[in-house]
Specification:
The structure holds two protein chains of two kinds.
Chain A (H helix, E strand, L loop, with lengths): L1 H27 L10 E4 L11 E2 L23 E2 L13 E7 L11 E3 L2 E5 L6 E5 L7 E5 L21 E3 L2 E5 L4 E6 L5 E6 L14 E3 L2 E5 L10 E6 L5 E6 L4 H4 L17 H4 L17 E4 L4 E5 L20 E6 L5 E6 L15 E7 L2 E9 L4 E6 L5 E6 L6 E4 L6 E3 L10 E5 L13 E3 L4 E7 L1 E7 L13 E7 L6 E7 L4 E8 L8 E3 L3 E5 L4 E6 L5 E6 L9 E4 L5 E7 L3 H8 L29 E6 L3
Parallel strand pairs in A: 3-34
Antiparallel strand pairs in A: 1-33, 2-21, 4-40, 5-6, 6-7, 7-8, 9-10, 10-11, 11-12, 13-14, 14-15, 15-16, 17-18, 18-19, 19-20, 21-22, 22-23, 23-24, 25-26, 27-30, 28-29, 29-32, 30-31, 32-33, 34-35, 35-36, 36-37, 38-39, 39-40
Chain B lengths: L5 H14 L10 H12 L3 H13 L2 H5 L21 H10 L14 H15 L33 H8 L1
Helix pairs in contact in B: 3-6, 5-6
The chains are: A mainly beta, B mainly alpha.
Chain lengths: ~625, ~170
Amino acid sequence: MVRRVGVWTVSALVLALAVAALAVLWSLRTDRPQPRSAVLERLAPLPPPEARALPAASAARAEEGQWTMPLGDYAATRFSALDQIDAGNVSELRPVFTFDTGIAKGHEAAPLVVGSTMYVVTPFPNIVYALDLTRPGNPLKWAFRPRPLQRAQGVACCDVVNRGAAFAGGRIFFNTLDGQTIALDAETGREIWRTRLGNIDIGETLTMAPLVAEGRVLVGSSGGEFGVRGWLAALDASSGALLWKAWSTGPDSDVLIGPDFRPFYASERGRDLGVTTWHPEGWKLGGGTAWGWISYDPDTRLIYYGTGNPGPWNPDQRPGDNKWTAGLFARDLRTGQARWFYQSSPHDLFDHDDVNESILLDIPVGGRRRPVLVRPGRTGFMYVIDRFTGQVLAADPYAHVNSIRRIDLRTGRPQYAPEKAPRSGRVVRDICPASPGGKDWNPSAFSPRTGLIYVPHLNLCMDHGITEANYIAGTPYLGAESRMHAGPGGHRGVLTAWDPVARRPVWRIREDLPLWSGALATGGDLVFYGTMDGLFKAVDARSGRLLWQYQLNSGTIGQPVSYRGPDGRQYVAILAGVGGWSGAIVSGALDKGDPTSALGFVNAVRDLPARTDAGGRLYVFALPR
Amino acid sequence: MSSPFRAEAIMLALLALAGCHRETRDYRSDAMKAAERGAAFEDNAFHIAQGQRLYAWMNCAGCHAHGGGGMGPPLMDDEWRYGGRMEQIAATILDGRPNGMPSFRRRVTEDQAWQLAAFVRALSAQPRQDALPGRADEPRNTEPMTLDERKPIRPVTAKSDDASEE
């Protein structure tokens, strides 16, 4: 009897051990997504008030409480002074209404709020919705369907995204994927004019949000992966007529380089560099699209915008500096004439478009405030550039970089690490940052209350090889293959709070997935951003501490905004809907069996389909009444 | 001596000959013919290898990567927007499709389109292993044999022969 009990005990023990072992094995399965939680690091003290950067006074927001352009104001601060929602009450923030766009592609746009109407522009087919904020349920006021050409979807490099509309003078201006700029009556949704600027049959699309200043609508082309020749155009806001068009390659007369052009560095001076820094005729397929952000300084009437990667990606096929691609232009808004240029990636090696936002700030230097623009570049460096002269005052890495050793401030030129330069037909391992850069298009926020720039960015490296590219009009002109993977630490996204005066990070949140959403800073000392698995977060602008988060229906790559509703309350809005280059594996149902899918991005986000679904939805949050 | 009926006889003979011609009747539908043509290309080592070269030259990889997709849909999964049979893929390549697939009609010949289709099918279906090319048209770190230095040929001596026999 005693012996039998012993047998039972032993077999129960064996069974328990087997179950435990199975459980351990199950948890070790590698294909099961195992989200890492975000990790906060505090690195430096906050800047004291006298050593804080301030936004350029001339470009600061005129109408507090509204959101009339994706970047919030001409200085590109993405700051809302509204302070009803703060660290003390943000935990009570909850959704007050949602609106489905019915489109399962990447939603990168910022909702706009003007008066008592909210405007949302969707990815292809680029529908504009106007929602009435005064009535219960926020019903649809009007919808405008531009009916872009179907085949435009085939020449959209990185999902069929749209980065938002712009409001000015009672009109909504936006771009369609198939190359049109359209002006609508903001009240009725009636079309006022449309101008076709891009030719999709050679791969020219429009994805950027226009900037409207002094009656001019500024629009830049997309399609740098198709061997197009990039440009920035200014249209008359009243009629849609073309006022000027500045090409990014070619002779000076095309680039609008004239007697006013005074670049700081010697390598940007010379006649027709847009032709002579290329192999013969190379500039005609040279890229340099202007698909990113434009800032505007009303004091000097200068606009600042960056140019994209040169074509093709394979650098061996385009010897020379490849001007005026992968650099930053300052131009006169009225004439389009270039004032200065700074090339962050001469003879770009890694698809490092220079189209990221330029935040116009005045920073204390030697007892006085100096007008600068600060930009987190694709190269992984944070550039501080004099707004008037184009001189690079500082360039410090904010992401992990091994492809550039340093940036020589005497010449402005990066010193490429030769061991990371692409080689024909071979694979170069662990190039950091990868082709989307230290940070891609998604805009940062700046808070004058803390003096910090909040940069949502990436921690990705890649294995990269180049092959010969053939030019066939309307097909990709690349000649490169990549496989991306997480950089050091294993996380793929980072939110960095950067002090542009002390030139160092103050705190940093490591996020598991790539950060592809924009950031928003508010007067309540909060920073909002979202993750690709759909967590919309609010963190303390001073410490980085997570204060609130909300699970959205889909990963977000959108741009959060804040506004005051007709009832006087503060609201926060964001579009969910995963996609874009980083989320194409979900929105395009790509196959993770091929690590080179989506130009190599799929290899870095193979777990994403298990963590989020596609589907566009607008969320608006507020505190309980 | 010529017969007065000679010309008429020749005419009659010709007419009789003409009467031998019958209209040809096609008992195979276009679909059957296309399937036969597809079968001639599919799982054929030469055609798949040619298709792989064309896949790189025609920038297919720019949109479809090595089958996983990107700007264009994946080709290695089991979903086909416009049909996954050989003749449907060849038609997609030659004529294009409305959601962005361009037409390659004047860029490749019809046979080359079929070769491309054979390669595309080899990406998705389970192809015959003995038909797949051994060459990978993508950057990699193994030295191509053609760049390998020629190894010196050592003369075979009696001694080394002896050694090998030991």
